[in-house]
Amino acid sequence: MKHLVLLGGGYGNMRVLKRLLNSSDLPENIQLTLIDRVPYHCLKTEYYALAAGTISDHHVRVTFPEHPRLNIKYGEVTGIDINEKKVLLKDQDDVSYDDLVIGLGCEDKYHNVPGADQFTLSIQTIDKSRHTYQVLNNLHANAVVGVVGAGLSGVELASELRESRPDLSIKLFDRGDIILSGYKKRLSNYVQNWFVEHGVEVVNNSNVTKVEEGALYNHDEKVECDAIVWTAGIQPSHIVRELDVEKDSQGRVVLTEHHHLPSEEHVYVVGDCASLPYAPSAQLAEEQAEQISQVLLARWNNQPLPEMNEIKLKGVMGSLGKKSGFGTMGSAALIGRVPRLLKSGILWLYKYQV
């Protein structure tokens, strides 16, 4: 019996499970084990709405699949011993594997800003998003909320919070000349103007140099805040950062074209921890998982490894509250109600398929 262990029940490993358990090519001697800290798959792309208070907790939870070939184990991973082919768990016995897929996701990256890790809120895990919700929604009227980082997460959180708590004074700190400066100008202008029209203060060309309790410093100028949410960057899980393997400048694991370690063909990395020529996203993790599934099935059935085609992403969809949004599809920039409806439809379809 061969044992495949999947670390983390995120988008990547959920797609691996779906493809393998539904495949007629899955050999009878393969047993699968999924290890996760919580007893459900979490829709991380919706944590911003959970933190803002516009959706309830159960909207971001999806039950793990049930299958006679799948064992689900709950626990906290404390390390990976690649030489011994073991996963180390807190207060539990080690778990041995024949093949391993690491999908442990990411953590906030604080860029060595003093106080940022201690005095800011996060939406990187469901536990942290719940805590952020409690803090934000317990604030007094007219409280000041600083959102540091105006990427996709920061934009969606700030816009959703505007709908949830219109009484709050929200300041969105962006390093660029305009929000989402990496996108087409038409899209960036639309998003920037949406915030202006809805009373959210956008602080462009910002540089947060220090955070302390009740305040942040933008270019060393003190800005008092009743709460500060950090959405200014991510890095791979500390478990992956501690692995003695080759990594890129972002700390993500360098892989072969078949998504395994160059030195160990039985260890694969999917999602935010993998070094790929794209920004980490749920869509990217799923597309990578499709290819990992193909490679695993080929190996298990003693077949030649498939040729890996270049991963092509379909686009990006973001929300500005419940009635407006933005996105890209191919070379087209989408703004207004249509991309918001598309995002809702994609989410519904994903939950239905899972």
Automatic annotation (TrEMBL):
Protein's UniProt keywords contain Transmembrane helix: no
GO biological process: aerobic electron transport chain
Domain FAD/NAD(P)-binding: 3-288
Gene3D superfamilies given in the database record: 3.50.50.100
Pfam family, one: Pyr_redox_2
Keywords: FAD, Flavoprotein, Oxidoreductase
SUPFAM superfamilies in the cross-refs: FAD/NAD(P)-binding domain (SSF51905)
InterPro entries, per database record: FAD/NAD-bd_sf, FAD/NAD-binding_dom, NADH-Q_oxidoreductase
Keyword field contains Electron transport: no
GO molecular function, one term: NAD(P)H dehydrogenase (quinone) activity
Cofactor: FAD
PANTHER family, A to Z: 64 KDA MITOCHONDRIAL NADH DEHYDROGENASE (EUROFUNG), APOPTOSIS-INDUCING FACTOR 1
Protein family: Belongs to the NADH dehydrogenase family.
Protein name: NADH dehydrogenase
